[in-house]
Amino acid sequence: MASVSGSVRLQRCIVSPAGRHSASLIFLHGSGDSGQRLRKWIQQVLNQELTFQHIKIIYPTAPPRPYTPMKGGISNVWFDRFKISNDCPEHLESINVMCQVLTDLIDDEVKSGIKKSRILVGGFSMGGCMAMHLAYRNHQDVAGVFALSSFLNKTSAVYQALRDSDGVPPELFQCHGAADELVLHSWGEETNSMLRSLGVNAKFHSFPGVYHELSRAELEKLKSWILTKLPGEVERQSE
């Protein structure tokens, strides 16, 4: 299936920076969603567009594929899952194919002049899980990773990759609603402590009363974190 990444070009919804583009943010949606809808959802929660002076935001859409938790129904998902649980094997074949496809997206930014150290990857729910696979297994030189309402399976290939690596992995910013009934808060906490034990500087922010959703407080916190990882560069005016 090596050829698949060559044939898949992801649909992307892009929010351009207001000023000079010097950093990029790849924000992955949850299962069954789209880049366009994630952008709108964030806009509704914040009452304004998530936008930055110098950061381009890319909201790609996962290609449609059969999804086992929906009894094989077609859905826009980054990869397949045997079930929504942290206690089953990962569907590595589909995860690996998508890591290739998303690598093309990162490469496009690098070709346009953005350094890898000025690219952040992250997402909501399944998107956050995908971002962790992408960064910790394939691109440990990105600026950072964020995962909102996300988790990794107990035997995740991400853990193995970190055990085998001797570099400094990118920082993780994790948020989770304490009332989440779909992706349990404890799965998020467990993922966080496992990653920390493997050398990741992983922050975990818990939001009481928040379900499997985006909250304003969390997005404001994320926005501040994004700016600490991708600060605006001082513009040097040439004479």
TrEMBL record:
Reactions catalysed: S-hexadecanoyl-L-cysteinyl-[protein] + H2O = L-cysteinyl-[protein] + hexadecanoate + H(+)
EC number: 3.1.2.22
GO terms, biological process: cGAS/STING signaling pathway; negative regulation of cGAS/STING signaling pathway
CC annotations in GO: cytosol
Residue stretches making up the Phospholipase/carboxylesterase/thioesterase domain: 13-227
GO function terms (MF aspect): carboxylic ester hydrolase activity; palmitoyl-(protein) hydrolase activity
Highest taxon above the source species: Eukaryota
Compartments reported by the entry: Cytoplasm, Cytosol
Enzyme type, top EC level: hydrolase
Keyword field contains Cytoplasm: yes
Entry annotated with the keyword Acetylation: yes
Keywords attached to this entry: Acetylation, Cytoplasm, Hydrolase
Similarity remark: Belongs to the AB hydrolase superfamily. AB hydrolase 2 family.
Alphabetical list of PANTHER family matching this protein: LYSOPHOSPHOLIPASE-LIKE PROTEIN 1, LYSOPHOSPHOLIPASE-RELATED
Role played: Palmitoyl thioesterase that catalyzes depalmitoylation of CGAS and KCNMA1. Acts as a regulator of innate immunity by mediating depalmitoylation of CGAS, thereby preventing CGAS homodimerization and cyclic GMP-AMP synthase activity. Does not exhibit phospholipase nor triacylglycerol lipase activity, able to hydrolyze only short chain substrates due to its shallow active site.
Identification of the protein by name: Lysophospholipase-like protein 1
Organism: Mustela putorius furo
